[in-house]
Input
Amino acid sequence: MKTWSRKDFLKTSLVGGGAALLATRGGLLAQGSANGDVRIGIIGFNAQGFGHLQNYLPGHKSKLDGAVLAAICDVDDKVLAKGREAAKQAGLTSVAEFKDYRKMLESKAIDAVVIATPNHQHSLMTIMALQAGKDVYVEKPLSHNIWEGRQAVEAAKKYSGKNIALIGTQNRSSEQIMNAIATLRSGKLGKIKWVTGTCYKTRDSIGLHDGPQPVDAGIDYDLWTGPAALTPPTRNGPKGTVHYDWHWFWNYGGGDISNQGIHQMDVARWMLGAQGLPKSVMSFGGRFGYRDDAETPNTLVSVMNFDSAPLIFEVRGLGRKKGMKAMDLYRKSSVGVVAQCEHGYINVAETGSAVAYDNDGKKLEAFEGADNGAHRKNWIKALQSRKVTHGLLVEGHYSTSLCHLANISYLAGAEKANVQLADAVASDLATKDAYWRMLDHLKANEVDLEATKPIVGPLLKVDAKTEMVSHTDQIVTDAANNSLIRKREGRGAFKIPVMQTGSMAAS
Ligand SMILES: NC(=O)c1ccc[n+]([C@@H]2O[C@H](COP(=O)([O-])OP(=O)(O)OC[C@H]3O[C@@H](n4cnc5c(N)ncnc54)[C@H](O)[C@@H]3O)[C@@H](O)[C@H]2O)c1
Output
């Protein structure tokens, strides 16, 4: 018996070759391209989004079967021109162009969107796309703050009978990591004692400028800003005043923990087998080694306690020593995750390669499997089967929220003398250990902690249900919960729709 694919179904449903109403997908009235390919709209394609765009260009080496580019959207004219040219070169003559994604979402010419805009737009665009009846691939991290991420998860639940939403934390499709986790769960290595995620990645100064910087005439800055506070850019590094360096400003990003770090945070939480948020979080760090426009720390240690074991996360933007580009290694990786068990440990590197060692560092097993290029293929499978198996939005929300919690403790912290920091970490072995590692690293970079004091965040209790935090000092509790990384409701026409119902909606 022939199994009918979406393509077959759409082919037989075509009436007169027009883009007519074609099929029902779990209740959704779907439309498709003439050959039944899913029609994709890309939102934001300066860098990461351009790779996505190429996935849907006929003849491109990274073309994904079953889907085709139907529309492009970017607020920057120069970026739009690059997309237009790429589509033309690929022989696509009817790709629609938009500067305003809200107009794109109204279009009947697309079935699904890929969102690769800056972080502060991810949740809002995900919700609006689902409301408009589109399927969604949203880049990591899911959100700019915990609350809006929860709204996106609730939207995915609400529309789950009609549309799918998937998050681009691509390690979720790595067979190597899945096999490594199966070994962890088998208990062969004994119980997990702790998991450490590292994001040691060079992040140079972005330069120091005075006051507001100009925005290129071709950029619609109001649309670029979306739900964030509308303020002129105050950066002007090698990437210009608008693109990419937003990562280092709280209004848009969350520093490297929410940039590169979210990938390792996701793997760390997955290895730990922790579903949801930790019981507590505490962070310390600073922006050391240079003075520039940026706000987020380039050095951060966060310790999160789960019922099963602690998760320690370390960010370093400075090199191995002053003037050096090469980064420190932690158990063989600069960017990676180590799950330490009673009888050995597993190291997952940035590439996704996963290896088990005994406690003397002798290799026990290298895990096999397809690499993480599989995630985008799994997205196409999800579009066809109408079910997300890798990259569930709720998993993205929890892992993203761990990054946010780490930043919330940091933001609620204060500059302290190094001796006070030493005191604050003295009672917890895992935290103390990470503190000493950070001190060695800063010493090698000739950072004087008397001149640039570390910021020490409070130990915050986390309420997994309300996704809020608390401290014995009410002032600290309020400061932490009022942090824009905990909750921001959006701005004017870019308010985040409240998708939670009942009493939770107010939190
Ligand atoms: N999965 C991964 O491994 C991976 C790797 C790199 C980046 N990313 C993610 O991809 C996203 C984009 O990263 P990037 O480095 O390309 O950033 P970028 O700043 O270089 O590009 C973002 C693009 O989005 C456009 N944009 C902004 N607001 C828009 C709006 N309202 N409508 C349409 N377009 C809009 C900008 O004009 C720009 O062209 C980030 O969230 C990042 O975290 C993921």
